[in-house]
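[SOLVED] Need 3D model of a two-part complex

Original post:
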Amino acid sequence: MNPATAQDRPVTLVEPHAHAWSPGEARARFRAGLPGPTAGVAAGHTQANLISVPADWAYDMLLFCQRNPKPCPVLDVTDAGAWTTPLAEGADLRTDLPRYRVWEHGDLVAEPTDVVDVWRDDLVSFLIGCSFTFEWALTEAGVPMRHIEQGRNVPMYVTGRQCRPAGRLHGPMVVSMRPVPPEHLGTAIRESGLLPAVHGGPVHCGEAAGLGIADLSRPDFGEAVTAEPDDIPVFWACGVTPQAAVMASRPPFAITHAPGRMFLTDARDEQYRVA
Amino acid sequence: MNPATAQDRPVTLVEPHAHAWSPGEARARFRAGLPGPTAGVAAGHTQANLISVPADWAYDMLLFCQRNPKPCPVLDVTDAGAWTTPLAEGADLRTDLPRYRVWEHGDLVAEPTDVVDVWRDDLVSFLIGCSFTFEWALTEAGVPMRHIEQGRNVPMYVTGRQCRPAGRLHGPMVVSMRPVPPEHLGTAIRESGLLPAVHGGPVHCGEAAGLGIADLSRPDFGEAVTAEPDDIPVFWACGVTPQAAVMASRPPFAITHAPGRMFLTDARDEQYRVA
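Solution:
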């Protein structure tokens, strides 16, 4: 996997009032060059992972997502070449994220702030649900978010669990981890379970070794978080999984968001809540 | 739309003890020639709509399903040419349904009991969630199912609401209707909402005209059901929608299940329940 980059800095809100921005306002700021991250921006609105692949890889990607719905819940898929989505009026997927990653044959080749120059007419873009959505629900329900308390990006780990492959696409499941106090465990599981469009309930609780993770202090993405003594590590499938599939499967070209620099949609988190 | 066929007869359990069969036992009986329908068979196990299209239509179909998740919740997609699925050990999708429909350029050309002779190596098969699953949940929760009380197939209607198109595929949303007593309405909405993989909560309640349905006594598929005086018509998105898309979009070839003659999976209904 790629080493952590300069993007994996502590999460601090980009501007003091960014949580109160409308999604459109946030997109305009990011388009104008504001660097992100997007954590806490336009509170209550759904953020999405982006992955764009050439049209002849789109079926494999869509099938990969269908076969692995917990890490890869699809919120929208564009037509080939299109940079618009019904999830965000007036948005331009090529410019409105704070930062992108450009991939060639599975290698990270650039981290630009827009992708207008490298855009291709055959790119199909997938917007994938993001755990930022269920973090709001958990916070509302009183579950402490240790990484937010500590001003850090959530830690993410490449697991030993392989996704179900689809055509040429294969790769490991990536998870995010949040330490949860035992008295909040039921709430955390129940509340995230009501949001299947943003990864749903956890895939594992307790020993990291159960997922083939050797050391919680060394995440593959994001930053390590300090747990309280009684906290139980809770692992959710993570939207970075399609990026891991790109690294493992090496399509000739792909564009993704940079970690923590998500796409702001106009959708409200609660519209993905099942009940 | 095609007129109702001989398949749309009153629903009666195929054999007295069919509800207690295992899914594998049920598939073996149907493979051996038992005609169906599958309502009530292998109780508690998930039944699925089948639609098989040539590989060069598979991306459009998968995208159509992703864009219209309420009528088209995808439970599994096979590799091209494969007639197996991880949802049902040892099953053969070409023989294990009681009856099929074969389509050429959008026209119904045959209703055989197996499709071994017309199978093609480029067929990709989609298994789509079926409302039989939430009917069990509703019955368990005490909601009366009028059509079952009356021994009829559930009535289905082609609506005036168009699905979001995907590539060459377009068509109207098809709904099923169940009359629900007002005191059970909340339960019916809540319980079905917890099963998003099998159409989730209703798309409409009350006046049929709101969906562009002219006459509830004349369903497009299945049979009309008699409502009690205070009952409210409740409409759920229906897995016959992909069949309507085939009729409207006319792919050169397709195979589907015959109405009411579903595919029995080994999955248990509760595993699709969100919480």
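Edit: Residues 1-10 of chain A have pLDDT under 50 and may be disordered.
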